[in-house]
TrEMBL record:
InterPro entries: Cyclic-di-GMP_PDE-like, EAL_dom, EAL_sf, GGDEF_dom, Nucleotide_cyclase, Rev_trsase/Diguanyl_cyclase
Record organism: Bradyrhizobium stylosanthis
NCBIfam families, alphabetized: GGDEF
Organism taxonomic ancestry: Bacteria, Pseudomonadati, Pseudomonadota, Alphaproteobacteria, Hyphomicrobiales
Annotated TM spans: 38-57, 63-84, 105-125, 180-200
GGDEF domain residues: 261-398
UniProt-recorded Gene Ontology molecular function terms: cyclic-guanylate-specific phosphodiesterase activity
Protein's recorded name: Diguanylate cyclase/phosphodiesterase
Keyword annotations of the record: Membrane, Transmembrane, Transmembrane helix
A family per Pfam: GGDEF
Domain (EAL): residue spans on this chain: 407-657
Amino acid sequence: MPTANLKSHVAAAVRLFRVPDDNPDLMRAQFDAFSKQIPLLYFILMSNTIAVAYTYVNVAPDWLTLIVPGVLTVLAALRTFWWLRQRHLVRTDADILRNLRATNWMTLPIGAGFTAWSFALFPYGDPFAKSQVAFYMAVTVIGCIFSLMHLRSAALIVTLVVDVPYVLFFWATGEPTLKAIAVNNLLVSGAMVTVLVIYYRDFADLVASRKSLLAQQAATQALSDENFRLANLDSLTELPNRRRFFAELSSAFTDAERRNVRVAVGIIDLDGFKPINDNYGHSVGDRVLIEAGRRIREVCEGFGPQRVEFARLGGDEFGLVVCGDPDDADLLRLGQRIGDQVKLPYQLDTAHTGLSCSIGFALFPQSATTAEALYECADYSLYHAKRHLRGRTVIFSSELEAEIRSRGVIENLLRTADFSTEMDLVFQPIVDAMSEHTAGFEVLARWRSSRLGLVSPADFIPAAERIGLIRPLTQALLVRALAAARTWPDHIRLSFNLSAHDVCAAEGILPLISIIEKSGLPPHRIDFEITETAVTFDFVRAQQSIATLKAMGCGISLDDFGTGYSSLSHVHRLPLDKIKVDRSFVADINENPVSHKIIKSLAGLCDDMEIACVVEGVETRAQLDSLRRLGCDYIQGYYFAKPMPGDAIGLYLETERQRLDGSAAKVVA
């Protein structure tokens, strides 16, 4: 055999009899399994040794039947006690390696000691006693090998130290039975060693697989944790998102209910964000949202002793969960601090933007008894703040609860209302900005309830949407509006509002088309006004409905422009004829440079896209003059006329004709 091969075989053989120190995971697994079986090994040694010693008490010297087995048994008992005490200790890899090596070394003298004692005892017995010694050594070594199977090196040492002398000794006796036992033991030991080697290899593979599996599990858990974090994180502001907010609300509410303490929900809406978003673009709007979120978060983190969970709910809306038994004063103080921070100037490149925020709070248990109802109360508080106390903090109260009950009354009465008799139509002129001739009328609905009296459209239109009556209401009003428009001069157009439910209904706008065809009014004299909210409700279906109305010849106006979240995207994706600029930009057009710039930009946009620009809410001559200079096409507002009943339109148009004729005569003169 070549020298290199001989050396490799010798090295492989040496590795079998040493503790592996190059694989800490395998070494630790060996130790954990081995330490559980060591007490069993020593129990086998002690019980079998005592049984053999007892057999030889009357035939062998005392030093062989009492002293030597006593010493060996005490040694085994001490080792058993030591291992039992060590089982629950946390060990380092170095400690484990040291203990395994010590066990390896101790196996040799212990195995040799028990073997030598057995051989010394053998000559004193009769054939039965001698057979017991042979049986004792064979069974004990098998038990020891099985107990040491997780420490291969120690098991092999026991096999060599005991089995080799065992076979030679009993073969040398010349006794056929003992020779047969020796050969049988040799074969069994060989089989056990084979099983031991295979088991050890599989055990090492199992440890490696477990390590790999644990690594995969750790990677999977890390990925799961990251996915959970991302699923609960707003990608723009890196704040907790809506999903995380409602999870926190549910947890906080359950805790407050259990401890019988207060918890509050707050909803924040940024006032003035939409104009910034539309005027300066979405990139600037996103940066404003990020900065506003950062400021609010700093206030929440520094607001003690209450704990405040803060999240972005979507758009320019944020949510708060205030824990720690807050009262109304705490909530007002928190709202004031947030408002003060949000109002600070935002300097973004060359643009200086200003914001404020409205906040609605609701407090458990005063306002609601469930987390969902508490959020709804906070949302209604915000709605009230934006309508009546913009830029302020509103806490849900008994008065607001009464308003909600009033909404319920409106909904119930609306279900039984007779639209043909209780609904009135009024019309507000839409005037050419330069000639001051009326170009059309916008139709507005008024509800005169037999029980409630005059109900504002701001109350009954949302109620009709909530209870599913808006479509039949729209159809009834459209029939009457078209009939009224047939009595007007041919150049006067009718402007009619459609809701999200009208343009996004599953069955489409076929009922509206049928009404138009039956009315006898040419479609080209009809403008349908659709809000951005209606468009975003279901953009694809809304786009299809608008395209159908456009194909009939109807005009399409985008109403309340500037109050939606993605106005510019709607402008270029829809076949629009007019854009109606929201009245909120007109009120301070001559005092606020920002409002002036916004309307100027919108008018320029309409001109570039060949879309007519209609401005609502004009109440003074100064506003009209400014809008003319900015290039706005049409004007609507109290400066020309308030909404009027249908039978007043003829007189209004006649008065307008006389006024304009008189003005023209003065110019000629």
